[in-house]
Amino acid sequence: MATRLSPRISRRYGSLAAFLLLLFSVWLWVAVDRPYNFPSHIGWNIYSNSPQSDVVSEDIFDYPPVHSSAIKAVCAATQWNESLVFTCDDNVGGIGHVRNSILNCVRFSIAAGAGLVLPRISVRNDSDISIIHTGSLTNMAYLFDTRHFIDSISLSCPGLTLYPELDDFKKINNANNPIRLSPQALGVKFPKTGMEDPKKFATAMPKAGMDKPEKWGELFHEWYADIGEQYQFIGTTKGPIFIALLRSYLTWPILSDGQAFSTQFGKILKLRADARSLATKVVKNMAEKHKFAANVHAPILENSFWGVHLRTESDALESLPEVSKDRLYPTYAMQTKLYLDFMTQERNSVNSSLVYVASGDPAQVANFWKDAKVMNWTVTTKVGLLRGKDLAELNDLTWDQQALVDFMVLAKASRFLGVGHSGFDWALTGRRTVSLSNKNGTKIDSARKDDNKEIKKVAVAEVGESAFLNQLFGAKGEVKAYKTCLWP
Ligand SMILES: *[C@@H]1O[C@H](CO)[C@@H](O)[C@H](O)[C@H]1NC(C)=O
Ligand SMILES: *[C@@H]1O[C@H](CO)[C@@H](O)[C@H](O)[C@H]1NC(C)=O
Ligand SMILES: *[C@@H]1O[C@H](CO)[C@@H](O)[C@H](O)[C@H]1NC(C)=O
Ligand SMILES: *[C@@H]1O[C@H](CO)[C@@H](O)[C@H](O)[C@H]1NC(C)=O
Ligand SMILES: *[C@@H]1O[C@H](CO)[C@@H](O)[C@H](O)[C@H]1NC(C)=O
């Protein structure tokens, strides 16, 4: 049954929840043997995520809540602990990044047996997209389908109690001031000095995920016992203690819970409904306009279109990853050359000269259109495939929300080309590989220097011979963390 926060709170929410559950979602009550605590002041819109119109749009990207026995087995082995509640508000960047850090929060909550307040997302600065740390937080419906998340957790991990908002606990213990924890720091042997310097701290952290994720729950409880001296209210109060999980991008090794868990876990985060509906329109309009015969419901559309991610946006140029000696320079010239050469060489592997290009950089898309045309490719984009009200709806979305449409369309491309230093591209290739298991997954080719001689060498020497589903270009040394820790 429900985690009881205090008699007062549980009475208030208990009766409210009973009423709302009867009214709106009786099935939830039946499916889940604990009530979800609905606060009185949250509008229903954040749970439904439905677009403004009453017309139900077609949605080829929809799927039911996740009911996974692999996840259930991991959750069943957890000792749930009502005195601990985690928050997960340090989620910044684009969909690839945010998705991974939220999934990690859920995994850490399971490991500790803690409850979780619905994660929040940091909203990127709309006038300068390279500024991701804005301190402006919004709820997870910004990118995801919150209802689907709640339902999937209820079905696949019934022990994990979700709470809508930290504000609901204003007066309880340290809810106003959760204890901050960088989860992947537990168990790391830090040098005695210099750790207040963020760079030194980052250097001491594991680079490609934690060594022993299965020990994390134990490490957490040891850490928690130790901080009792520093936070004297621990152990003296009733009700939960709140712990704020700091950003944990690329930390939990995804295979540590087995293959089935690793492929199903990411599906608890379904993208928001209005983006799904726009992506459906893009794919259907593309099929109609360019006359490809594939069934748009298939996970990958064979012989239909090439998908390309042009990762030249200002945030990629300005906020270079730090472990980057060996990285692919994210310039337009280099990416275009690699992509077009590769596609031309592999032209016969997809019976289509249509290229769907995704980029948050319209000027470079226009250049790509021209450069590709010379080599007999037809380039299209989401903007080119939407009209009128749909286009207006797309334009009303923020930069990161618009990227969701590209993410879904690219997921269906016959073949996908991207860069190896993009979380977006890795999340995408992971999903694509999982959705079609009989094809080879991702191949990494390395490129070192941003000059034509080097590019040629790479294109000739390293392009794969077999028809891989995904092709990423980048430096080999950088990909270990993505491969190990990015949930598909
Ligand atoms: C957003 O970017 C603009 C333009 O660079 C800047 O003036 C503004 O202060 C930024 N706002 C935040 C919250 O970072
Ligand atoms: C919950 O975790 C706390 C902190 O580690 C511990 O003191 C307590 O015994 C745990 N309770 C249960 C029921 O496991
Ligand atoms: C390629 O596409 C053309 C035109 O859509 C079609 O006539 C042809 O049969 C296709 N070939 C293969 C090998 O799928
Ligand atoms: C493009 O197509 C034209 C006409 O079929 C052909 O003459 C030209 O060689 C092609 N160019 C490339 C780069 O394939
Ligand atoms: C997968 O890769 C192997 C080894 O490179 C190759 O032999 C095989 O043909 C590939 N399969 C597909 C479906 O591309």
Give your account of this protein's structure.
- The chain is an alpha/beta fold.
- It has three domains: 1-40, no CATH class; 62-268; 273-485, 3-Layer(aba) Sandwich (Rossmann fold).
- Helices cover 40% and strands 10% of the residues.
- The protein contains 19 helices and 13 strands.
- The protein has helices spanning 7-24, 26-31, 45-48, 69-76, 95-112, 146-156, 198-204, 216-226, 259-264, 273-289, 314-318, 332-345, 362-374, 382-385, 388-396, 399-411, 423-435, 452-462, 480-485, and strands at 84-88, 115-117, 120-122, 137-139, 162-163, 179-181, 241-245, 306-309, 354-358, 378-380, 415-419, 442-445, 470-473.
- The strands form three sheets. It has a six-stranded parallel β-sheet, with helices on both faces. Strands 5-2-1-7-6 form a five-stranded parallel β-sheet, covered by helices on one side.
- Helix 13 links the parallel strand 9 (354-358) and strand 10 (378-380).
- Helix 5 (95-112) packs across helix 8 (216-226) and helix 10 (273-289) packs across helix 16.
- The radius of gyration is 23 Å and the shape is elongated.
- The protein binds 2-acetamido-2-deoxy-beta-D-glucopyranose (5 copies).
- One 2-acetamido-2-deoxy-beta-D-glucopyranose (NAG) binds next to loops.
